[in-house]
Amino acid sequence: MPSQQNSPATLIVNARLVNEGREFDGDLRIEQGRIAQIGTGLAARGFETVIDARGRRLLPGMIDDQVHFREPGLEYKADMATESAAAVAGGLTTFMDMPNTNPPTLDAAALEDKYRRAHGRAWGNYGFYLGASNDNLEAIRQLDPRTAPGIKVFMGASTGNMLVDDPATLDSIFREAPTPIITHCEDTPMIDAELARYKAQYGDDIPAWCHPDIRSREACMKSTQLALSLARRHNTRLHVLHISTAEELALFEPGPLRDAHGLRKRITAETCVHFLRFDRADYDRLGHKIKCNPAIKDASDREALIAALAADVIDVLATDHAPHTLEEKARPYTTAPSGLPLVQYALLAALELVHEGRLTTAQVVQKFAHAPAELFDVRGRGFLREGYAADLVLIEDTPLTVHADDVLSKCAWSPFEGTTFHSRVASTWVNGVLAWDGDRLVGDAMGQRLEFDR
Ligand code: DOR
Hints:
Blueprint: E1 10-19, E2 22-31, E3 34-39, E4 49-52, E5 57-60, E6 62-67, H1 80-89, E7 92-97, H2 108-118, E8 125-128, E9 130-131, H3 137-142, E10 151-154, H4 167-176, E11 181-184, H5 188-202, H6 211-214, H7 217-234, E12 238-240, H8 246-249, E13 258-259, E14 262-263, E15 267-272, H9 273-277, H10 283-286, H11 299-310, E16 316-318, H12 326-329, H13 346-355, H14 361-375, E17 392-396, E18 400-401, E19 420-421, E20 424-430, E21 433-436
Parallel strand pairs: 1-4, 1-5, 6-7, 7-8, 9-10, 10-11, 11-12, 12-15, 15-16
Antiparallel strand pairs: 1-2, 2-3, 5-17, 13-14, 17-20, 18-19, 20-21
This protein binds (4S)-2,6-dioxohexahydropyrimidine-4-carboxylic acid (DOR).
Cofactor: Zn(2+)
InterPro entries: Amidohydro-rel (IPR006680), DHOase/Allantoinase_Hydrolase (IPR050138), Dihydroorotase_CS (IPR002195), Metal-dep_hydrolase_composite (IPR011059), Metal_Hydrolase (IPR032466)
Pfam families: Amidohydro_1 (PF01979)
């Protein structure tokens, strides 16, 4: 595997750089895996590869703080190599992976096992969350905060068996967590009650469009309120994942992530691309392909979530990439698993909102690269800054239609099949090395273990 020390020196000229709220014309020099210089009229040196960006947008690589790459234990659905390849093809150069694997990631040994697996196989940079359970408080207390972006608490049951519903345990986790806590918020007893009602009516073959009524907005609201009250009681750094309803937005404080004194918000919110591109009307066409937890809800929720991103009520955009096989998705409602593959087309889907005039490119970069880097104290990534890792993505405004044959995820399907995006990923660099050339993966898996400045 080549190291970043012998990575090629590259000069990208005539780019439209998008960074920290600005869009400007300029050049960017890569040396030894890092951004060496940003400026205008930079002169090429003999040994450098020069790339003419021809005015195309050059962004920091996206940082996806919510993926399920399924390793260990569920490799028949996905693995770190296949899914990180799909991510890099989609301009996502860093991923943070969830603990609902088999076995689940519940202690330091399981965490290190994942880091070992990713080494040399992950196309993007990687971090792994420690999971919480009803009985791993000691492992949470002892977690070295430099070894994981955060601690994942399933406050609602989903894929895997990781529900934390013991009130005393929840209270202790929020009081003692040495890293940010990230939560999946849906109230399981409310969901179970609704599911029983629908099963009584339909048996196992509940229509897919009932999913948002079973995994209801009320269940989201109740659980999110509980997470926020625990965080306020203990002054916890809390990040609430995948907000899916308009109602929950009122619970979060609008405003930028940082003020002059550093990280201002103790409680932050995230939504996911599928909540911005799909709504209840899509269950007819896509069925269980868009069955996920929390559920995709109404068009009015979708519109409110987009507005909340623009208004800085929602701080982070991520994917919740959660692949399952088509065979699994074809099962009846009660046994069809929840989750959909997203990493390869998530950035292009987000850029459609720019095309539609709902967000700016700078806002997409803020939510999908800068904010996760800041929230999780990621060292030296997520920005176009001299000295930072050269994780970069070049966007070309040429239409791209999604075909199943082009999907790099192991499950080999996408909810976006047949969709034409206005833009495509022309190139992705990871640690200064070209990894995606617009058509195919090139070179080797160059991802590095994330470091956290804590
Ligand atoms: O839809 C989902 N799928 N939501 C989750 O919380 C878990 C995920 C999975 O792992 O399949």
